[in-house]
Amino acid sequence: MPQRYKTRALIIALAVSTAAASPFVPAFAQASNPFSAFDETSTEQVDNQPYQEIISALSVPERGRTLVAYDIARAQALPFFRQYVDYLANIPVETLNRDEQLAYWLNTRNVLLIQALAEERRISGFKRKRGTPDAPGDFWTKTRITVSGTPLSLHDIEQDILFAEWDDPNIIFGLYQGMEGGPALPRQAFSGPNVSEQLSEAGRRFLTLPSNLRVRGNKVRLSTYCDWYAQLAFGGDETQMRQHLSTLVRPEARALVNSDGTLSKRNLSTAFERYQTRQAGAGSGSSGSRPVRGAGS
C-alpha cells in the first residue's frame, strides 16, 4: 500500500443552500529552481481528502462549471483553509515522484486561489486583480504560501514551477481562474496516478463549450484563454497550439482545428464567477439561491 501523508483532524460543518503592471521579478530569477528535485521511486501520496470535502461543501455544479459559494467560505471555512494550507506547506515535496508533485502543485495552487478569494471582503475589479500571465495583477503576485523556505505566489507556482518543470500543455486546463472564461474548478483533486488523464479530460471539457471553441463550416473560433498561456505552453507557436488542441476535440473537428479551418478568436470573459445565496423577499416564507455571473468584473 502506498504511504500517505495524513492531515490533522479536520472537522467542518458547512451547508450551501441549493446551493499596465509594474515589472515583476520571478521568485527564482536569481537562483536555480529549488523544486526540481524529486524521487522517482517514491510511492508517497498527498492526502487529498480535505480538498474533496471543502469543494463538495462549498460549491454547486452547474452547466459543467463548479461555482463556489464564497460568501459561505468567508463566513465559515477560513480556519479550515488555513489549516489545510499549513499542511500543504509542510509537505517535503522533494520526496514525491514527478506525477505526485504535479498533482500537488495543481491542487495547492487552486486551493490557494479559493482561499484568497474567500478572504476578500469585497471582490471588485477582478479583471484588474487577476491581470494576465504576462502582466499579473497584485492579487496574483502576492505571497500565498511558503514551501521549503521559498515564499510563493500564484504567479510563481504557475510560471516558475508548473510550466518550468513540466512539458505538458494541458496544465493550462488545470488552472482554475475564478472567472467565467477560465477552466472549471475540478471537483475532484488531481492525483499522482491519474493526473495526466485528468488534465486531458479537463481540456476536452473546456473545448466542448461553444464559448471556448466553436466549429462551423470551415471556421474555427477559439477562446483567447489559450493565448494567455501560449508562450508558456506552446512556445508562442500558434501552429503547435492548434495541433495540440486538435487532439482534444471530437474526431470530425480535428482537421479543422489542426490547420484546415480559418481561425478567429473570441475574448474570454474575465467576470468573477461565484455562487451566491440569497434570501427571498420579506413575507415569502422561503429562501433561495442563485448563480452570480459578472460580479466584480
Proportion in β-strands: 15-25%
Beta strands, count: 9
Element order: H for helix, E for strand:
HEEHHHHEEHHEEHHHHEEE
Largest sheet: 3 strands, mixed
> Residue share in helices?
25-40%
| Mean of residue pLDDT values | 85
Low-confidence stretches: 6-31, 279-297
Structural class: alpha+beta
Describe the structure.
- The chain has 297 residues and is of the alpha+beta class.
- Helices cover 38% and strands 16% of the residues.
- The protein has helices at residues 49-58, 70-89, 98-119, 126-130, 138-141, 154-165, 195-208, 225-228, 230-234, 238-246, 254-260, and strands at 59-62, 65-68, 143-147, 150-153, 213-216, 219-223, 262-266, 272-279, 287-295.
- The protein has a three-stranded mixed sheet. The protein has a two-stranded antiparallel ribbon with strand order 1-2. Strands 3-4 form a two-stranded antiparallel sheet.
- A hairpin with a 7-residue loop joins strand 8 (272-279) and strand 9 (287-295).
- It is globular, with a radius of gyration of 20 Å.
- Mean pLDDT is 85; it is low at 6-31 and 279-297.
Key structural traits:
three-stranded mixed sheet; 11 helices; two-stranded antiparallel sheet; globular; 38% helix; alpha+beta; disordered C terminus; 297 residues
